[in-house]
């Protein structure tokens, strides 16, 4: 199948079956495309929709996003994961506002924080109607199966091969529709498990379908046992029913979010309280829970401590602060910490 036929098959399918009512497909602009593509990185469409709607309601323009406090952005992002995306959105918004226009070349876009080649290609194709290939997870799956490309797509050689195929098949005309169509095909038809091959416009030309290797492609990432990290989170409350939270460093896991002080053991948590002149009135250890990141498991044990010290304790440039339940609901919190605090404050 030559590129023209490939494009015609996909566009004909998109015209008849493709999704056209997603929120970021309405009032298309570079800002909305960039925001949606960033949110959709490693995140399902159904999960992104409410976050996108809330985000553009709160930050309807690039200027609004650039001027917003990072705490407010992280709060709106809370629960979506991969928080570096939110921090990069803020940095990039500020850079674009300073520039005075939304960049419209591949080099300019890919130089901005959080914008890789595929996200840049999607912005240029959809928002500016400039012909550029993309290679997000959905497109990788479609192309790996269509051409029966074996090998894990994260491998540099396989990735390079898939980029070349994507570039070869990307049209000049109707590139915005094509870009949305091939992503949609991967998201709704050529899915990771139980793909609907009988409904695919490429079925009769798909090498994986012909060779009966659809379930084997793309080749999975080589299995690796995730290491386990163990921590104790201090859930410290005072007689005013406030909870002590600390702001995490701007980079790294949960960067810039508010969380609970963490320790390598219960004794360390107790000693920390005493050195801060916060006598321990009551102490309780809750069941250990697990939160899995992409590179490791985190087994964390909440330690509930009640202190009778009523002093409004603040230290380290307001990076550690007492908050009441109502204030906590307005902060950017990691999902497991948010759940833990909601359960605690309800109790």
- State the CATH class of the largest domain: Mainly Alpha
The helix content is: 40-55%
The CATH architecture of the largest domain is Orthogonal Bundle
Number of helices: 15
Major beta sheet summary: 5 strands, mixed
What shape does the CA trace take?
Answer: elongated
The secondary structure category is: alpha+beta
Domain module tally: 2
Q: What's the number of extended β-strand segments? A: 8
The Cα radius of gyration reads 24 Å
Write down the CATH topology of the largest domain: Endonuclease III, domain 1
Query: Could you name the ranges where pLDDT drops below 50 across 5 or more consecutive residues?
Result: none
Order of helices and strands: HHHHHHHHHHHHEEEEHEEEEHH
Mean pLDDT rating: 94
Q: How does this model look, in words?
A:
The radius of gyration is 24 Å and the shape is elongated. The chain folds into two domains: 3-216, Hypothetical protein, domain 2 (Endonuclease III, domain 1, Orthogonal Bundle); 228-346, Nucleoside Triphosphate Pyrophosphohydrolase (Alpha-Beta Complex), CATH 3.90.79. It is built from 15 helices and eight strands. Strands 1, 4, 5, 6 and 7 form a five-stranded mixed beta sheet that branches. Strands 3-2-8 form a three-stranded antiparallel beta sheet. The N and C termini lie far apart (62 Å). 44% of the residues lie in helices and 13% in strands. The mean pLDDT is 94. The chain is of the alpha+beta class and 347 residues long. The protein has helices at 3-17, 30-39, 45-58, 62-67, 70-77, 84-99, 106-110, 117-127, 137-146, 156-169, 175-188, 207-210, 266-275, 325-328, 335-346, and strands spanning 228-237, 243-247, 258-259, 262-263, 280-285, 289-292, 297-307, 320-323. Strand 6 and strand 7 form a beta hairpin.
